[in-house]
Design goal:
Elements lengths: L6 H9 L5 E2 L10 H6 L6 H9 L11 H8 L11 E4 L1 H13 L5 E6 L4 H8 L3 E8 L5 E2 L1 H7 L4 E7 L11 H12 L4 E5 L21 E6 L12 E4 L2 H14 L5 H12 L1 H25 L3 E3 L8 E5 L5 H12 L1 E2 L1 E2 L8 E4 L5 H18 L2
Parallel strand pairs: 1-12, 3-4, 3-6, 6-7, 7-8
Antiparallel strand pairs: 2-9, 4-5, 8-9, 10-11, 11-14, 13-14
Helix pairs in contact: 4-10, 5-6, 5-9, 11-13
């Protein structure tokens, strides 16, 4: 099997433990145990009680009824619980969903560049993959007219990342409706990785599952809900794809585990409090970065729409990997080079890091950029 490394994951696997000031991650500052306990207003008593009554077996193979019920509440459409399958994060959701849909020789259109599995998994499975390229002049969105030209009678799947990693660009409801029309014209599925939820209300956002009958939606509690430790995600699909995923899940994960299910369900039950916390982080940190960019040479960005990941463009006299390695070795600051996403001369900035980490990381990055000019 010809499978390539995921550039961003390979970089983080090698370098993240060396970071003192990690401003590379795309999770909104992960919840602490104390913050988890505080969510129920009873010092975590309800969470502790749930954990204590669980037997240490495999748990619910497809996710508990309570988990599925909380996931259903995230969407406008009434979704049959059988169409909601718990996975090992959004990564597992994407893998299983694409394996369930794509066959050798299929035509797949994938947003590019973005999170590599959305185009690399179909390619590895033998599909013909065409890249639907994002454009800076469109706010890092692709052109819908390009998709109209690219779609073919044999197009099986269109893959999008909404919001996008690393740029934070968001396709609004109108654009999603056009994608749905184009996909429907040839009977294609649309896989929408929705792990990043826009939190600032600046875009008319909808889930693809509320727009298109042949949508396959993937998500998790890792990014927007600040709980990557649980490693719990989900995929929503029609009956045909869901039944195929059930078989693939048996090969790839069996179950998400008892504790992960409990934690994910608990956080989704208290999502209003979590999202209120995270909107404050996103809003405050966005302002911090914008002020830093306004006074710092050799850096610019298209600000993300309340999404926890962003892409900064760097005017530097070297490639971005060399610059990022020097930044880590000399100043302890971790970024992900943009070239790891197919976006050279830039970097993913995880601006939703804890405030003190973000400010110190930006100060050190700014000093490195200022030194270029002597």
């Amino acid at each position: 099997m010809d499978i390539k490394v995921i550039g961003v994951e390979d970089w983080l696997n090698v370098h993240e433990r060396d970071a003192v000031w990690d401003i590379a991650q795309s999770t909104i500052a992960a919840l602490t145990i104390d913050e988890l306990r505080a969510l129920d207003g009873a010092g975590g008593a309800t969470l502790a009680e749930r954990i204590e009554r669980e037997k240490l077996g495999y748990g619910w193979i497809e996710g508990s009824p309570a988990f599925k019920d909380e996931v259903r509440k995230l969407y406008d459409r009434d979704i049959d619980p059988r169409r909601i399958l718990q996975t090992n994060g959004c990564t597992g959701a994407n893998l299983n969903a694409i394996m369930a849909i794509v066959r050798p020789g299929d035509h797949v259109i994938a947003e590019w560049p973005t999170y590599a599995p959305l185009y690399e998994i179909p390619r590895t499975l033998g599909a013909v993959v065409d890249h639907w390229t994002v454009r800076e002049d469109l706010g890092w969105l692709p052109d819908i007219a390009d998709l109209e030209r690219m779609v073919r009678p044999d197009t099986r799947l269109i893959c999008i990342n909404n919001a996008a990693n690393p740029t934070g660009a968001v396709m609004d409801a109108e654009m999603l409706a056009r994608i749905a029309e184009i996909a429907a014209s040839v009977g294609a599925y649309v896989l929408s990785d929705e792990v990043y939820l826009p939190l600032d209300g600046s875009v008319a956002y909808r889930s693809m599952v509320d727009v298109y009958d042949r949508a396959v939606v993937t998500n998790s509690v890792s990014k927007t809900y600040s709980l990557p430790a649980a490693r719990i995600g989900w995929v929503i699909a029609d009956d045909e794809v869901s039944d195929a995923i059930r078989t693939y899940r048996d090969y790839t994960m069996i179950s998400g585990g008892v504790f992960g299910d409990v934690l994910a369900t608990y956080v989704l039950e208290h999502r209003d409090a979590v999202l209120e916390r995270n909107r404050r982080i996103v809003s405050g940190n966005l302002a911090t970065v914008q002020a830093w960019i306004d006074r710092t040479p050799r850096v610019r960005w298209t600000a993300p729409h309340g999404v926890s990941t962003s892409y900064i463009q760097l005017d530097i006299p070297m490639d971005d990997e060399t610059f990022s390695l020097q930044l880590l070795e000399e100043r302890g600051v971790l970024l992900v080079p943009g070239s790891r996403f197919g976006l050279p001369r830039g970097a993913r900035l995880g601006y939703c890091a804890p405030d003190d980490v973000l400010r110190e990381g930006l100060a050190r990055l700014g000093a490195a950029l200022e030194e270029i000019d002597g």
